[in-house]
Amino acid sequence: MNKYSFGLLLVVFISSQNLKAQTASEALQYSLTRSVATARLNGLGGAMGSLGGDFGAIGINPAGLGLYRKSDFYISLGPSYFQNDALLKGTGNERYEEGKTSFNFNGLGLVITNEPIGSNWKNLSFSLQIAKVADFNQNTYFKGKSPGSITDRFLELSLDPNQSGLIGLDPDELDDFEAGLAYETGALFDPVGNPNQTVYTTDLLAYSGSAIPKEQLLKTRGSLHDFSIGFGGNYKEKLALGAVINIPTGTFKRNNSYKEYETTKGEFLPFVNLEFKDKLETEISGVNARLGLIYKPIQALRFGVAWQSPGVLNLKDKFNTELSYTYNNGRRDTSLTAYSPDGEFNYRLRTPMQWVLSAAAIGSYGFLSADIDFVDPSSAKYNLTSDSDNPSDYEYEKQLNEDIKKQYKSSIQYRFGGELALSKYRFRAGYELVQQAYKNADEYNSGYSFGIGYRGNWSYLDFSFRHAKINQSYAPYSTGNSDFDGNGTIDAPSPLVNQDAFYQSFTITLGFKFGAIRSYSYGGLIDN
After folding, report:
1. pTM of the model
2. 166 or 127: which carries more pLDDT confidence?
3. Going by C-beta distance under 8 Å and a sequence separation of 6 or more, which residues neighbour residue 126?
4. Structural domain boundaries of the chain?
C-alpha cells in the first residue's frame, strides 16, 4: 500500500467496529499533517524551516517569527483538484476516473513586531494564525468483479466468538449498523430456525470464490486547520527562537454508496442485488506545541531545528447506515430496506512528535533551502475509553494500537526549494520527496511546485502551483479473511482497489506590512 501526504490525507475504510471511523488509516492521516498556508511556502516545496519571515515558515519552524522586520497581515486561498483513477483488483476490470475541484481557505494571520530598547534582542514578535494542514476533498469510483462479498463481513460480525463454525449471536444481539441490518433485510438469515441455537448463512456463501460484480462511489469532504498563537525573538542577529501553541480544528465527512449485483438473470440465485450506504461526520479538535531555533553562523548561511510535541486530538463521530437487499423467493424478487439509528462516539488520538532539520544558503539574488522532516506514525495511539466504559471498546482500542505498530514505520521527508530575486519580483521552484510510512513499502513519492511573487515595501502578492502524484490502495470493506467451511481456503476475502491519483493546487497570498522597526538591508530578500 502506498500513501503520500501534501497536507492531503485520506480515510476510506469501513471500520470493523460498528462503522465508527477508528482505523489505523485514520491515525495515519492525522499524523502526517503539514502547513500549506502561503503561496511562498508552497512554491518552495515547503522548504522554509530555516528561512523565516513568512507565515508558512512559522508553521514549520516558529523561530521564523524572530526574523520578521515589520508587522504583517495576510490572507491566502485558492482552488485545488484531486483526480482518482481507481481499479478494482481482479481479472478484466477497467480503471475509472473521478475528479473533485475544491476552493480552499489556506490561511489568515497577523504578526506584531517590535524592537526592545537597550537589549540584545533585536526584535520580538507575536503571531496569531489559522493555517490549513490537511485537505479531505476527493471522490473515488470503481466498478468491476472480484471474489468475495460484503455479506461475508456481515456474516463474520454475526458469529458468536465463544462458539465454532457458523453458530451466531442471538438476532437481538446483532449490532444496529451492519449485521443487524443484514438480518432485517434477509442478507443474513438462519435457514434452520432452531430456537436453541442460531446458525447464520448468506445467499452468496454458496458462491465462495466466484467473482462478484461490485461498484462504489465514495465521497469525502472537509479539512483540518491549525489555529496557532506564537512568540519569537532575534538575539544579536545570530540566533532566532520561537514557540507556538497549535489548536487543530476541522471536520471530516464521508458519504459512501457500495453495490453488488448480478449481471445476468439468475447468476447468483437467490441473490439479486444489494446496496449499502454509510454516512460519517467527524468533528476534530485538539492541541500540540511547536518549538524551534534558527542559527546564523554567517549572514549567508542558516540552520534550523524544529520540534512538534505529540498532539492530542478529541474526535467525535456521528454516523448512520442503510442497507437495501433484493433476493428471489422462488416466485418473484423481494426487496427490503433497513435503517440504522444515528450513532455517536467520542474518543481521542495521540499523534506522534515531529522533527524538522533545515538549512539555507543566501546570496545577493536569492537563496536555496532544504528541509528534512522526521515523523513516526507507528507511535500514534488511540484512547477509545476516554468517554466509554464498554469493555469491547477497550479490546478494540488494543487491537487498533497493535495494528498501527504493525503497519507503520518512521517516515523521512525531503523538501528542496529555491527563490530568484530580480528587483521586487520573485521566481520560485520546489521539489518534495516523501518516504512511505508503511512497513512493507520502501518507495518514495515525489511532487514539484512553482511560484512567482511581487515584494513591495508595504505589500506583497504571491502565486504558486503544486502537483503531486499519489499511488495508494484501499479496501471498500474489511473482513477477517474467514474460512467458514474449514477446508483451508479463505471464504471471506477483502477486495482491494488500486488508485493512481494526482493532486494539484493553486494558492494566492496577499499580504500587507506595517510598523517597520528599523532599516535592514541584507536580509530583505528573505525576511519581511
Report:
1. 0.89
2. 127
3. 65, 111, 112, 230, 231
4. 24-134+213-244+288-311+347-525
